[in-house]
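Box 3.1 A note on notation
Throughout this textbook, protein chains are presented in two layers. The first layer is the amino acid sequence; the second is a token string describing backbone geometry. Keep the layers aligned when reading.
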Amino acid sequence: MSRAALSLSAVNRAPAEPLFRRLAQVLGPVLRVATKQDWRGGGKLPRSGPVIVVANHISNFDPVALGHFLIWHGRWPRALAKSELWHVPVVGWLARSLAQIPVERRTARASESLAAAAEALARGECVVIYPEGTITADPEGWPMTGRPGAARLALQTGVPVVPIGQWGAHTVMPGRRATVPRLLPRATMQVLVGDPVDLADLSDASDSPTAAAEGSLRIMDAISELVGELRGETPPTDRYDLRAGKRIPRDWAGEVV
């Protein structure tokens, strides 16, 4: 029997907000029927203790598909997401009720999201970050350049960073706008967990922008390799950058994050 076919109580007894658990109890069986699950490497995800999960961002359906995987592997996700979502009816209420973490992008309050994430990690929680900061704009759907926040958080807290590659959510909600989910034909949600990203040699420079940029490059390298494995393709050696509006050499990415 696949893990997705098990009941929530059989796979996750960790404490959570009552609404979070109730939603999982309702949506888990629905997702198991509405989509297929190709989940690999779940044993590499720590079942307890603080962890930073980093993943590629391909669709507005990502939080549902990745959340399904994480919850059925014993972790309740605390995801960082753009604060604009907190002003969307229903979505904002859910984000607040489920204790997700708003990111005030391009404001003086942007650092507050990392402080809130650090507090969640201090409580032993699972913090989820999409390092690209938005759904990929790469013409072929590959991961873009990453922002340094995830690496900075890892270096400052010493918490392990577990990379995840995912593929398939974009067939349910294609494009960069929120749309009604396309559940037919039944899509496969592929999730592949990798080994923790090695940032040990950067730990002595936890406050250094250069160290955070290098850490971000390593994180995106790890995610890209996992996505490539899921797609059965070799990732491009360059990465799309939103500010440049094109793919740039991988080694340049650390200069623009």
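Residues 39-71+125-256 form one domain. Residues 209-231 form the longest helix (23 residues).
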